[in-house]
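ok so i was messing around last nite and threw this chain in just to see what happens. nothing serious, just curious
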Amino acid sequence: MERKSIDFIEVMKNLGQLFNINELVTFNEKQVKDGGRIALKYDDGEISVDVVYDEHFHRVVLGCQVFTLPKDYEKLLELYQIFLASNVYWSGTQGQGITIGVLPEERDVFLCKHYSLPFFDLANLKQEIEGFGKCCCTWRQALEAIVQGR
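result:
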């Protein structure tokens, strides 16, 4: 099947209108063309969801650093087991297809998901981004509680 070219800048402008966010409509177009990203804030700014256009694979990628594990946290193995189990059939993200990962050196916990283009519609993408943002907030709150021993 032949893929149609998609104007990511136009998609992001339309997405900005759907979210009623003027900042999305006026972002730096050169930055997007050069692989830039747009950030949407959730949970009073504690969570920043990046919406990135991956031109090489012709897809939109959602990504979020949800938490940084403390250097002195002693139960890392237990947390890593939780992350691995959560990725099995995406059970830790209510089946949304969101992947959980950790950068070991930095101990940053990330969530990500991608959508092939142009095989989505804008209203559905808005819902997906909102669901992704909620999932990120849930994981951040859960990790804070686990690390604090609650």
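not much to say yet. The helical segments are 8-19, 22-25, 29-33, 76-87, 122-147.
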